[in-house]
Each structure stands twice: as structure tokens, then as C-alpha cells.
Amino acid sequence: xxxxxxxxxxxxxxxxxxxxxxxxxxxxxxxxxxxxxxxxxxxxxxxxxxxxxxxxxxxxxxxxxxxxxxxxxxxxxxxxxxxxxxxxxxxxxxxxxxxxxxxxxxxxxxxxxxxxxxxxxxxxxxxxxxxxxxxxxxxxxxxxxxxxxxxxxxxxxxxxxxxxxxxxxxxxxxxxxxxxxxxxxxxxxxxxxxxxxxxxxxxxxxxxxxxxxxxxxxxxxxxxxxxxxxxxxxxxxxxxxxxxxxxxxxxxxxxxxxxxxxxxxxxxxxxxxxxxxxxxxxxxxxxxxxxxxxxxxxxxxxxxxxxxxxxxxxxxxxxxxxxxxxxxxxxxxxx
Length: 335
Hints:
Largest sheet: 5 strands, parallel
Helix content: 40-55%
Shape: globular
Order of helices and strands: HHHEHEHHHEHEEEEHEHHEH
Strand order of the largest sheet: 3-4-5-8-9
Number of helices: 12
Radius of gyration: 20 Å
Strand content: 5-15%
Distance between the termini: 43 Å
């Protein structure tokens, strides 16, 4: 029944002759550069409630949100963590062990369920946290910084465990048939500069290994440079990262960083355009539509995906999300 409803949705929401009849074809044309430029793909992501992070409820939450918003691909949230570990002395790092081979089974079940239902008609992108993100969620950023200064080998050993496990997770997702991945990165923020060479030593090598696996034999991978842990003063260190689409912060070095600047720096299409705490959260539907029309006009002729700079807040009005996506799809002439 879910598959039938999904197919009906895809065929009834894209009826204009120049636009493909399902979301998978929309994104295929976008990637090839043949999609009608008046139709801008759009997607916004949010974390669902605690009761919708595993099992059938997680599957239902993702598909219900996708269908009700009209977004152009399915991005699957990553809600699994290693668990919090308190590091009070050096030996406590030994509490971090290699992840068991079945660690990601609950998330893989969600990925498979969603792919089986929606994969024929929409591209499916699971989220893959970076090894560094999993480590700071386990022990905290302050602990990582402290031990990066004094006992870097312990930090690297833990990062290696997470890297190997995440590569295994990515390979398992690809066996299911996913089209690509949403790959966030952290660790390049200003606050980590107190450790010389921190990014180059503890972040980038592990990011690259996971993201290269994500980008092998897939077609849609979104690099998300996440500012949840703090601000950035430079994004050039990420230019060599893989990914067909770049989703970056709205502000870099305390200056606006728009989609055009992002495309110019990375030489790839950008995703974003809306600040997650701006009009889409606090404005009216009319204000959201006005902002998007202005954005489309300023970027006329450019390939981009409308979205937010990061995961939108759960209290974001659904009417605003729907308006944003509908406006992004609207095929009016933008002069």
C-alpha cells in the first residue's frame, strides 16, 4: 500500500510537460544539466521525534514527511551513536572498542525499507556522519581537543575504529541500492585551531576515506559543511573533498556566504539559500515565497538545490516548508 501511494504521489505532483513524471527523473535531469531551469529541486531535512528513530515508525516518519512536503529526494537521518563515554584519564580511551559488525543493523533496516518503497521513484540518500562527529558525540569536543594535544595516538585509534565501521556501513547501504549519501563534516571550525594542524591530522584523512567510499559507484552525494560546533573563517580546505553538491554555512569569516560564492569556490552546484533560523522558521508563508523568488531571480541560469544551511528546527512550520518547495518548483518566468 505504501508503495502504491508513493507512486501515485510522484505521478500526480509533476504534471507539467517539461518536467519529468517522478522525482528520480527530476534529479537525474538536474545532475545531467538538462532539467528545465525554472524548476529548482528542493529539500529540507529535520530530525523526527525520539519515537521515530528506529523501525517502522522511522520509515513512516521519513516517507510521510517526504510526501507531505513534495521535496525532490529522500534523505535518511542518521540517529545511531556509539554512546556517551566519560574520559577522566588516559586509560579510559580503552573503553572505545571496534564497533561490532552488526552495529548499524537498525539503521540499515530503515534504509532498506525506505528504498524498497520509494527507490523506484525517488533517489535515496542516507546520512553518514564523519568519524570525527561520532567521536565528539561519544566523548565531547573538549576531551578530543585536550587529548589531541597530549596523546594524539589515542584519539587516532578511536577515529580509526569509527572510520572502518562507517566504511562498512556505506558499503552495506550501496548493496541495498542507494543513489548516494549526505556526508556532513565538522572539525574545521575556528575553535579547533588551538591544536596546530588539528584538521589535517584528526579530521580530513578520516573524512576522505569514508567519503571516497560514499562517492564510489554512486551519483548524488552532498557534502555538508556543518557549523553546529562553531564558525568557520575559511572553507578552502574542503575544496578537495568529494561530492557532486556542496551544502555550506550561510556565513564564513563573519561575512555572508551565498550559493553563488559557494559554486565559485567549489566549482560544483550548491545546495541551500535559506538560513534555518530565518524566514522559514519565523516568517510567514508569503515572506518565504518572496525570499525564494528573489533567490531564483538572482541565480537565474545557475544549477542549485534549494534548502537550508543545516537541519531545520523541528518547530519550523510545515506550511513554510511546503511553500518553500512549491515556490522553488514554480515554473513562472523569472526576469
